[in-house]
Amino acid sequence: MLKKMSAIALSLVLLQGCQEPPANIEQAPLAVSTLTVSEPVESQFRIFNGQVEAAENTPLAFRVEGELKQVMVRMGDSVKQGQLLAVLDADKFEQQQRDAKVQFELATKQLQRGRELFSKKMISKAELDELTANQRLTKVAFDSATARLGYTRLVAPFDGVVSDVPKESFEAVTPGEAVLSLYQDDKVYINIPVSDNVIAMINPNQQPGGYQPKATFGSDIESYPVSYLKHTSELEPQTQTYHVWFEMAQQTPAILPGTSVALNVNMVEAGLSTLQGYQLPMIALEAGREAGQFHVWKSVQGDVQKVAVTVEQVNNHGAIVSSGVELGDVLVTSNLRKLRDGMTVSIIERKAENKDVAQ
After folding, report:
1. Fold assignment, 47-55+181-266
2. Along the 359 residues of the chain, how does pLDDT read in single tens digits?
């Protein structure tokens, strides 16, 4: 029995020795998709949201205290320069003016009589000087009383629209307390909150000549060119933002304060960006081990190479890369983690479109 089993084993060994060794199966290259780097970024559009504000909104107040006799206008009324807007009860001020007038007229007559007496050497020069000084003092008092009487009338300092009327007739007011507010309706002011990154790039002395951002108001599809007006240099504590104002001429129908605004700005033409580079989709980038470290895989004659790149900005379309890639480079966009330097790949190529960038 043992001899029989040994013979079988020997036969199997002889059969295996007669068989040909298995052929090496060649592994197919890794299939990847690619893109070709096209033109560098030429414009970087960004949309800022803001609100229309009243142009030159000016609170108006009386310069004297008193009781409001009448407010002649309401919110939204259009007014002309010099138009009477509100009046105080002027009885007290009229009485003060009458008293001051009587004192002035009396002092004037006394001065005239004193001059006659002085010419006849009936009074001294000192007595004449006293009469002269008294007449001048009463003149000052009369002029002051007349001016205070005029302060009981509040008139429009310019053509505009009434934006607010916080006071009503028969209310008591103090000097400097706003009775109503008036704004210029021939202009539109746009208030845009921005971050510290944007405010740091604004230089009013180097505003690009001729460039005007485009503003769209509310649900209106038409856009209008606007001009830079001013900006704040202090951070607003509540919103942690700065503010930039733009202006434009009023339209028909009128664009009212409080209307929402979308401001479309080409950051390059506005001189608010120094970014130079190529727009790449995020699928072409591989993050490194350290923060801010990125790489791309370039395909060169069928083989791939790992190249470090500098990412300047991440936006809605991916990232702007300023170094590491050039026009015409073929970049791998799939299976990045399976790649190794020098690996041969099978490429499915497609060309990327470098459109204007919306940041």
Report:
1. Elongation Factor Tu (Ef-tu); domain 3 (2.40.30)
2. 544 555 555 455 445 555 555 555 567 888 899 999 988 876 677 889 999 999 989 999 999 999 999 999 999 999 999 999 999 999 999 999 999 999 999 999 999 999 999 999 999 999 999 999 999 999 999 999 999 999 999 999 999 999 999 999 899 999 999 999 999 989 999 999 988 878 777 766 665 567 889 999 998 889 999 999 999 989 888 888 999 999 999 998 889 899 999 999 887 777 776 667 888 999 999 998 888 899 999 999 889 999 999 988 887 788 889 889 999 999 999 999 999 999 999 887 555 444 444 44
Which DSSP string corresponds to 207-271?
PPTT---EEEETT---EEE-EEEEE-SS-BTTTTBEEEEEEEE--SSPPPTT-EEEEEEETTTTT
Q: Which amino acid is residue 84, in one-letter code? A: L
Contacts of 293 (CB under 8 A, 6+ apart): 287, 308
Q: Mapping DSSP to helix (H, G, I), strand (E, B) and coil, where does residue 185 land? A: strand
| 3-state percent helix, strand, coil for the chain, nearest multiple of 5 | 25, 40, 40
Its pTM stands at 0.58
Is 296 exposed, middle or buried, given 0-12, 13-18 or 19+ CB atoms closer than 10 A?
Answer: buried
Q: Which residues pair with 314 in a beta bridge?
A: 319
Q: 30-43+275-358: which CATH number, 2.40.420.20, 3.30.420.270, 3.40.50.150, 3.40.50.300?
A: 2.40.420.20
Determine if the peptide bond prior to 253 is cis (ω within 30°).
Answer: yes
Euclidean distance between CA atoms 277 and 265, whole angstroms: 19
